[in-house]
Design a protein that fits this description.
The structure is a single chain. The protein is mainly α. Helices cover 78% and strands 0% of the residues. It contains ten helices and no strands. α2 crosses α7.
């Protein structure tokens, strides 16, 4: 399940050679697989294909949710945000559940788009690939997510996960070519379409929330005084 021990190559080699020994010391094989997938997505996918089942992918998503929850709780603690810490305790169940459901729903949409462009991979293989990549992002972003809770200056460190996620789009492109046997152009189009869809959904949700908020404010303003 874990990635093989190797010396990093390429411009991310210094980062990999720092990250992998640390992650390897953690007794969670999936975490090592995620980190390895961030630096070597196609190799990691090949090494973890036995997890390309509903149960295998589900375990990855649930564990990713738990790791993300721990990062959030530590961030609240670092920032002495005890109110958020108390509320966040419920996330130990909600966040893994959200990752589990959201991960499979997102994979369904991705699978449809990939098939439109001629993708030949299996749904569970693709779902595992997406889990590995999101797990890689979660591991690399973990320390910066925690430190983002530092008052006043934490927001600067909080920008690093954005850079980590941007590079992961390149990993997604490589993984899409490998999983679905697509050429570079078609794989790039799949990723671009998914980015556009994600942006559209995000804007739509933001607009719905804004309308709901304005409606609530308007409703409060229409209540007669004395009631």
């Amino acid at each position: 399940m874990a990635g093989k021990k190797s010396v990093g190559s390429g411009f991310l080699a210094p980062v990999e050679n720092i990250v992998m020994p640390i992650v390897s010391a953690i007794p969670l094989a999936q975490m090592k697989a995620w980190a390895y997938a961030y630096f070597h997505p196609v190799d990691a996918y090949g090494q973890n294909k036995k997890d390309a089942t509903f149960g295998g992918a589900a375990v990855h998503f649930i564990l990713i949710g738990l790791v993300a929850w721990v990062a959030s709780m530590l961030s609240y603690a670092v920032g002495l945000n005890f109110a958020a810490f108390g509320i966040g305790l419920m996330g130990v169940i909600l966040l893994p559940l959200f990752l589990l459901i959201g991960g499979f729903i997102g994979s369904i949409v991705y699978f449809i788009v990939a098939k439109i462009f001629g993708g030949k991979g299996s749904f569970m293989g693709q779902t595992l690939a997406l889990a590995l990549l999101y797990g890689g992002y979660t591991v690399l972003a973990f320390p910066f997510t925690v430190l983002a809770g530092i008052p006043l200056v934490g927001w600067i460190l909080g920008l690093v996960p954005l850079l980590i996620s941007l590079y992961n789009l390149y990993n997604l492109y490589l993984m899409t070519m490998a999983v679905h046997s697509l050429n570079s152009t078609r794989a790039a189009l799949v990723v671009i379409v998914m980015i556009v869809l994600a942006l559209v959904v995000s804007f739509a949700l933001a607009a719905m929330l804004a309308v709901a908020a304005l409606g609530a404010v308007g409703g409060m303003g229409s209540v007669p005084y004395g009631y």
